[in-house]
User: What shape does this take?
Amino acid sequence: MAKSTPSAAKRVPAKGNSKAPKSSISKKSKPSAAPSQGLTHVSSITYKDLKVGTQVMAAIQDISPDALILDLPFNKMGIVKGISNMVDEDDISEHMKQGNVALKSFKAQHRFRRGQLVTAAVIANDGSGREGSIQLSLLPSVLNAGLTSKTMKPHMWLPATVLTEEAHG
Assistant: This one.
Protein backbone atom coordinates (compact mmCIF):
# COMPACT_ATOMS: atom_id res chain seq x y z
CA MET A 1 0.00 0.00 0.00
CA ALA A 2 1.15 3.49 -0.77
CA LYS A 3 1.65 5.92 2.08
CA SER A 4 -0.59 8.90 2.10
CA THR A 5 1.12 12.26 2.15
CA PRO A 6 0.08 14.86 4.69
CA SER A 7 -2.22 17.52 3.37
CA ALA A 8 -1.02 21.09 3.02
CA ALA A 9 -2.95 22.10 6.16
CA LYS A 10 -1.05 19.60 8.35
CA ARG A 11 2.46 20.49 7.18
CA VAL A 12 4.87 21.47 9.90
CA PRO A 13 7.19 24.44 9.38
CA ALA A 14 10.92 23.76 9.31
CA LYS A 15 12.95 24.17 12.53
CA GLY A 16 13.85 27.73 13.37
CA ASN A 17 10.97 29.07 11.33
CA SER A 18 8.07 29.97 13.56
CA LYS A 19 5.95 31.41 10.80
CA ALA A 20 3.66 29.37 8.62
CA PRO A 21 4.89 28.74 5.07
CA LYS A 22 4.05 31.53 2.67
CA SER A 23 2.15 30.90 -0.49
CA SER A 24 4.21 31.27 -3.64
CA ILE A 25 1.33 33.12 -5.30
CA SER A 26 0.95 36.76 -4.38
CA LYS A 27 -2.47 38.24 -3.84
CA LYS A 28 -2.15 40.71 -6.70
CA SER A 29 0.05 39.48 -9.49
CA LYS A 30 0.73 41.87 -12.31
CA PRO A 31 1.70 40.49 -15.67
CA SER A 32 5.27 41.42 -16.38
CA ALA A 33 5.59 43.74 -19.33
CA ALA A 34 8.25 42.39 -21.65
CA PRO A 35 10.37 44.96 -23.43
CA SER A 36 9.18 45.66 -26.96
CA GLN A 37 12.50 44.56 -28.49
CA GLY A 38 12.05 46.95 -31.40
CA LEU A 39 8.73 45.50 -32.55
CA THR A 40 6.02 47.89 -33.65
CA HIS A 41 2.32 47.41 -34.10
CA VAL A 42 1.10 47.42 -37.70
CA SER A 43 -2.52 48.42 -38.03
CA SER A 44 -4.71 46.99 -40.76
CA ILE A 45 -4.75 48.93 -44.01
CA THR A 46 -7.93 50.01 -45.74
CA TYR A 47 -8.56 50.68 -49.41
CA LYS A 48 -8.41 54.41 -48.64
CA ASP A 49 -4.86 53.97 -47.25
CA LEU A 50 -3.65 52.69 -50.63
CA LYS A 51 -2.85 56.00 -52.26
CA VAL A 52 -1.32 56.36 -55.72
CA GLY A 53 2.40 55.59 -55.50
CA THR A 54 2.12 53.21 -52.54
CA GLN A 55 4.18 50.06 -53.03
CA VAL A 56 2.91 46.76 -51.65
CA MET A 57 4.00 43.15 -51.57
CA ALA A 58 1.30 40.95 -53.09
CA ALA A 59 0.66 37.37 -54.17
CA ILE A 60 -0.76 36.50 -57.57
CA GLN A 61 -4.22 35.00 -57.12
CA ASP A 62 -5.42 34.64 -60.71
CA ILE A 63 -3.92 35.01 -64.19
CA SER A 64 -5.85 35.89 -67.33
CA PRO A 65 -4.49 36.95 -70.73
CA ASP A 66 -5.20 40.62 -70.00
CA ALA A 67 -4.96 41.00 -66.22
CA LEU A 68 -3.61 39.69 -62.94
CA ILE A 69 -5.63 39.60 -59.72
CA LEU A 70 -3.38 40.20 -56.72
CA ASP A 71 -3.94 39.40 -53.04
CA LEU A 72 -2.80 42.40 -51.05
CA PRO A 73 -2.03 42.50 -47.32
CA PHE A 74 -4.95 42.38 -44.86
CA ASN A 75 -7.28 40.51 -47.24
CA LYS A 76 -7.45 43.26 -49.86
CA MET A 77 -7.41 42.70 -53.63
CA GLY A 78 -6.08 44.64 -56.59
CA ILE A 79 -5.83 44.24 -60.34
CA VAL A 80 -3.00 44.67 -62.82
CA LYS A 81 -4.46 45.44 -66.25
CA GLY A 82 -2.68 45.35 -69.58
CA ILE A 83 -0.10 42.75 -68.63
CA SER A 84 0.36 41.83 -72.27
CA ASN A 85 2.09 45.21 -72.69
CA MET A 86 4.36 44.98 -69.65
CA VAL A 87 7.59 44.68 -71.63
CA ASP A 88 8.79 47.40 -73.95
CA GLU A 89 7.94 46.42 -77.54
CA ASP A 90 11.35 47.62 -78.76
CA ASP A 91 13.08 45.18 -76.42
CA ILE A 92 10.86 42.31 -77.57
CA SER A 93 11.42 42.95 -81.26
CA GLU A 94 15.18 43.38 -80.80
CA HIS A 95 15.52 40.04 -79.01
CA MET A 96 13.20 38.30 -81.45
CA LYS A 97 15.33 39.53 -84.35
CA GLN A 98 18.33 37.94 -82.70
CA GLY A 99 16.38 34.68 -82.49
CA ASN A 100 16.95 34.36 -78.76
CA VAL A 101 13.37 34.75 -77.56
CA ALA A 102 10.13 33.06 -78.48
CA LEU A 103 7.01 35.21 -78.31
CA LYS A 104 5.29 32.80 -75.90
CA SER A 105 7.79 33.68 -73.17
CA PHE A 106 6.18 37.13 -72.91
CA LYS A 107 2.63 35.83 -72.34
CA ALA A 108 1.29 36.19 -68.82
CA GLN A 109 0.75 32.45 -68.38
CA HIS A 110 4.46 31.85 -69.02
CA ARG A 111 5.78 34.79 -66.99
CA PHE A 112 3.71 34.44 -63.81
CA ARG A 113 2.38 31.67 -61.59
CA ARG A 114 -0.32 31.59 -58.92
CA GLY A 115 1.08 32.30 -55.47
CA GLN A 116 4.12 34.13 -56.82
CA LEU A 117 5.12 37.12 -54.69
CA VAL A 118 5.46 40.40 -56.55
CA THR A 119 6.02 44.03 -55.67
CA ALA A 120 3.31 46.29 -57.07
CA ALA A 121 2.68 50.03 -57.10
CA VAL A 122 -0.78 51.59 -56.80
CA ILE A 123 -1.53 53.58 -59.97
CA ALA A 124 -5.25 54.23 -59.42
CA ASN A 125 -7.71 54.00 -56.54
CA ASP A 126 -11.31 55.07 -56.94
CA GLY A 127 -11.78 54.98 -53.15
CA SER A 128 -14.94 52.88 -53.33
CA GLY A 129 -13.45 49.98 -51.37
CA ARG A 130 -14.72 47.45 -53.89
CA GLU A 131 -12.63 44.56 -55.15
CA GLY A 132 -10.86 45.68 -58.28
CA SER A 133 -11.04 49.33 -57.31
CA ILE A 134 -7.27 49.30 -56.77
CA GLN A 135 -5.28 49.30 -60.00
CA LEU A 136 -1.65 48.25 -59.71
CA SER A 137 1.44 48.18 -61.89
CA LEU A 138 4.32 45.72 -61.96
CA LEU A 139 6.40 47.75 -64.39
CA PRO A 140 9.93 48.32 -63.08
CA SER A 141 9.82 51.88 -64.45
CA VAL A 142 6.84 52.63 -62.17
CA LEU A 143 8.16 50.71 -59.16
CA ASN A 144 11.64 52.20 -59.42
CA ALA A 145 10.54 55.77 -60.19
CA GLY A 146 12.69 58.13 -58.19
CA LEU A 147 15.27 55.45 -57.42
CA THR A 148 18.83 56.73 -57.48
CA SER A 149 22.19 55.24 -56.62
CA LYS A 150 22.04 57.11 -53.30
CA THR A 151 18.68 55.59 -52.30
CA MET A 152 19.71 51.99 -53.06
CA LYS A 153 20.81 49.99 -50.03
CA PRO A 154 22.33 46.52 -49.56
CA HIS A 155 19.72 43.71 -49.44
CA MET A 156 17.09 45.98 -50.99
CA TRP A 157 14.31 44.24 -52.90
CA LEU A 158 14.62 45.74 -56.37
CA PRO A 159 11.92 44.83 -58.92
CA ALA A 160 13.25 44.09 -62.38
CA THR A 161 12.47 42.02 -65.46
CA VAL A 162 14.99 39.66 -67.02
CA LEU A 163 14.70 39.79 -70.81
CA THR A 164 17.44 37.38 -71.83
CA GLU A 165 19.96 35.05 -70.34
CA GLU A 166 23.47 35.20 -71.67
CA ALA A 167 26.38 32.96 -70.74
CA HIS A 168 29.72 34.65 -70.40
CA GLY A 169 32.65 32.49 -69.64
Q: What stands out?
A: The chain is about 10% helix and 20% strand. The two ends are 83 Å apart (CA to CA). The first helix runs from residue 89 to 97.
